[in-house]
Amino acid sequence: MRPHQLRRREFLALTGLTTLAAATTAGCGRASGRSRVPADTLRYQGWAGTVTPAELAEDLGYLPGLTLKWVGNTTSGPQDIQAAAAGDTDFGGAFNGAVVKMAAAKAPVKAVISYYGVDEERYSGFYVLKDSALHSARDLIGKRVAMNTLGAHAEAVLDTYLAREGLHPDEAARVERLALPPVNTEQALRQGQVHVAVLTDILRDKARERGGIRALLDDHRLLGSFSAGTYVMADRYLEAHPRQARAFVTGVGRALKWSRRTPREEVVERMVRIVRRRDRSEDTEPLRYWRSYGVAGRAGRIAPDELSLWARWLERRGDIAPGRVHVPDLYTNAYNHTAEPHRDRSGS
């Protein structure tokens, strides 16, 4: 049996990821297979109050001949790429560690372009109360750290920090990790329900404006600038529709370049118009805090160390067996035909 012929139940059992039950918003339903979907229509899940690079690319006119079909909002990155692998959507994005874990389960997908990352403008901070006695990694032993989901970006950064600061794995295991909805994390910190809160983007900036907290660490100070997550597409789609895949990946790459070279205020205003026009009853206020997608590579091109770093993390955790994944097989830049600045005649 070829990898992309795995039955859906077998795939879910292999990955150990969450089910698709909450994949879409109420009333949207879930697409099932591509039998009635044209090759130039790409089904996807979004994020409330957010404009993804793919959505920006479509609005900029960078996806000629393609149509994006929103089927609902995702609950997490791992769920989003699971939906793509199971055939419920045509692309999905997640933290690279989740992509590696899926590859270790021999899932029928391949990473095709980076879509978010970490830089000095876009980062995750681990915050404590200003008068907290927590100042070091060792201080976290026995303490509660709240993050949006377990086994993904925030926990990987936490594990990396604890290891670099010299904690033995047994000591690191005593740092309690809790999954909380991001909108509730700051409140849990201020009420003393958790000792550390992982905050990003608007939630981080608003919490800092209110004061009374300080950063214990952040992923940019710890690891520098790097692309942290990739869009994946199913092998069956890449094999059957390479032209459309190339148009999609290249368009997203162009949108990433546009967002970098365009004044931030202009990018934000365009995002606000996109959200208002799609009319999904979303709050546009979070977009006012947008600063960067954080992608480090040229037009989203994927670097092998952006995957191998997290493969080693998963091996140390015992989540995957050493040598289970061969990083060059996990991704491809072959569909990214985004031109370099001096060659891009369209100016994009």
From TrEMBL:
It holds the Pfam family NMT1. InterPro entries: SsuA/THI5, TAT_signal. Residues 57-265 form the SsuA/THI5-like domain. This is ABC transporter substrate-binding protein. It comes from Streptomyces reniochalinae. The lineage of its organism: Bacteria, Bacillati, Actinomycetota, Actinomycetes, Kitasatosporales.
